[in-house]
Amino acid sequence: MNKARINQMANKYMTHDMISLHTELPEFPEGRISLLHTVLNFQPGVASQRDLLSVVTSLVQMGLDVHDTVDNSPNAGRNGLVGMRAQQLKVLAGDYFSSRFYHLLSQAGQIETIRHLSEAVCNINRIKMNLYGKMKQMKLNAEEYLHYGAEIKSGLFLSFTSFMSGLYERLWPELVERFSRCEVLLHELQKVEKMSSLDGSWGMWHILQEGTEDDRRLLSERREDQHLIKSLLNKYDVAEKLDGLLRQSTGQLQSLLQRLQSDKLLRELQPLIEPFLQATGQQRATALKELG
């Protein structure tokens, strides 16, 4: 099944007029859902349930992701009635997706899967609280930021380890964690391309960790200064360092896939790795162009 088909199946359960009209949803987690669906197809015990399991996991993930877009800052209430309703609808949308997940699995008698995914949600929320606490106290470094990001993205999918058998059971946790890390790094590269803000980015934590005292002070005081952002990104080679980290993680992911000892599975998963390979190639070309 291709990514578009999975997205189409999930949309059947996510579509709601009120949500569609008033709420912009986060990006659908196509990569991780496709990874799960493809690997489940190679597990005889659950292959027949792969469509259901992939759809409900996407619903839970979208519920978590849309809740993350709720603005809890002190300024959140200053956008008037329209802004307040938009925030409320995000909360309701996340709850709605979660209710669809429970309904589908309960109908199918998949009570144990409900337990696994619910426990995963609790663990993800715990990880998020730890991350937000460290960020608030400014006690986070760039590598920890990546680690937390990969943990959060992989949390739901790790709950399927018990559904795997043999070699797959041993390799699945590392596979989904490495894939999630690549997704985080790709997203961080895309942030650098926009150069709109360093807030909540790997680049910010890297500069706060490696930068001079003056640069750290400037970053804290003028986070929205476009000229400063571009200057600091170039000075500390943020794009090049992210590119190197993504190339490293993608190489590790490819090596891990080889250990699955299935040429057929490798061929089916290769399209999921292409965005990572293409991003590093584009980044290198951009860097060379700027040097020229």
TrEMBL record:
It comes from Cohnella lupini. InterPro entries: HEPPP_synth_su1. This is Heptaprenyl diphosphate synthase. One of its GO terms (biological process) is menaquinone biosynthetic process.
